[in-house]
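Deliverable D4.2, example record:
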Amino acid sequence: MPSFYHETHTLFGHLRNPVLQWIFSIDHKRIGLMYMVLMFTLFFLAVGAALTMRAELFAPGAQFLEPQTYNELFTFHGVTMIFLFIVPGIPATLGNFLLPLMLGAHDVSFPRLNLISFWFYVLGVILGISSLVTGQGFADTGWTFYAPYSIRTDAHVLSTLSAAFILGLSSILTGLNFIVTIHRLRAPGMGFFKMPLFIWGLYATAWIQVLATPVVGITLLLVILERTLGIGIFDPTKGGDPVLFEHLFWIYSHPAVYLMILPGFGIVSEVLPAFTRRTIFGYHAIAISSASIAGIGYLVWGHHMYTSGMSDIARVIFSFLTFLVAVPTGVKIFDWVATMYKGSIVLATPMLWILGSIINFTVGGLTGLTLGAIGPDIHLHDTYYVVAHFHYTILGGVIFMFIGGLHYWYPKITGKLYDEGLARIAFGLAFVGFNMLWFPMFLAGFFGNPRRYFDYLPDFTVYHQISGVGALLIASGLLLIVYTFYRGLRSGRDAGPNPWNATTLEWHIPSPPPLENFPKIPYVDFEPYEYEAGEPLVQFDENFRRIR
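Output generated by the structure prediction step:
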């Protein structure tokens, strides 16, 4: 097994203990890897909870779970996936590892703040799962913590709310660090429109982290105060307004959807040029659309609340804005398809994951427009149609993009190559399994199967049984990915600095990258995706002098 990063900077100077070297490291690469290990551990715990729910739903009637246990399971699954994995996932892991590399910098602007952000994340994880460790059970509110139920339930909600608040603080600090890094530490000559598009995705995401996260933090804090002090804010029996909670929650949580998606879009825009061997089509349009999505995304929260009591004018406005935010997303998909048109496409594993994610995300986006329309949404609200739409967008879209990015940058992170055959099989299992799992839920929801129930009418049995088989397939694919990466780490061939013939700066330094990334800061007088006859137009020698 290769030894990662023999040297490191730590918070307390030189430390000899290798465990302490990692825990107190202020090297952005080590921090990104620590995030990655912890987040994917939590991811697989959440997948286990989902498989348990799918087993319960394989047939109508109670199988082996009590209703209260089922409520705790889907809350654990939702909170873990949303707050502990998807929202911080790509920025904290690949973002931390790659941001300085792609900008031509030695590290992020505030390395110590970066480590503190990770510690806040760890504290949030410990606090969030503490009720499970102590045997008190988990919250049963769902990941949305809707009031007044979250105020009145006897379940262990306080630790979960407090954990979400601390995780929000970690997210804000990370976003602030990224914004300053992008503004201050770009390599000489690298203007905003010479940045890689993954950086554009991280930049738009960071602004959402900084501006939107405080809203949900304050909202969750108000719920904590109401539970502990009895203040009437959201509980109607005390003069509070539960609809106010929904507004405050979704003012953050819909921008948070784009917080999850925009870094994934950036990954797509990195992988496509590398495996089509051509300059990406519409670079400026893709970059500006990321900023547009982040901006318009603040204005569409009300489409979650068509059935909550809202004026007709407000519903029409929110519906219009929902359709409007689809425009810059459509621009990206058009540009991605145009990039592939007449390209020299190489169907390596990262490209397969990206193609699969575009297909899945397109289905999720189009079904989202159905929910953005007022009439259909009233019929489909709180059915499995909504759950299927969300999972096509997040699991089939964002997480597929994330896994595609992991395959793409795996050689850079580890210096090793994985088994391409095993990786392709894993993708096939995951792609087929995902669509078997969630497409039947569109039909079940359309015919009226409500979500969040541990039981259902016998009419919906066939849909849930097909979904159950799909869940086993996608879980098998995910486990095979872990085995493929582990095997590559143990016995994979050396990757070299640039196995994909990619063009951005991180591919011009050794794999894994050295301590301070670059022997000297490069001067960027070229575009990020320049190919000539299918080969990178710009190359550097071992001393980072440009030779082409």
